[in-house]
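Async update (no meeting this week)

Hi team, since we skipped the sync, here's where things stand on the single-chain job. The sequence we agreed to prioritize is pasted below, unchanged from the tracker. I ran it this morning and attached the output directly underneath so nobody has to dig for it. Comments welcome in thread, and please keep replies under the output.
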Amino acid sequence: MKKGAKKTITKDMTIADVLAIDEKLADVFMGFGMHCISCPVSQMETIEEAAMVHGLETDFVLKKLNENVK
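Output:
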């Protein structure tokens, strides 16, 4: 990836993967009521799985995460 290029977040990434890209994305998760960001499950749970557990549309969650990634 080129320096300064934005990384695209995908449904198969874990919550931990996303937070490693930009820890401020925790605010997006919290806004959806996904308080699992500090839970050990976040190391293994994909965005798609977390969205399903919380009754959210995966594509909408991805859209908001990608809009806010630095």
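Quick observations from my side:
Residues 15-68 form one domain.
The radius of gyration is 11 Å.
Reply here if anything looks off.
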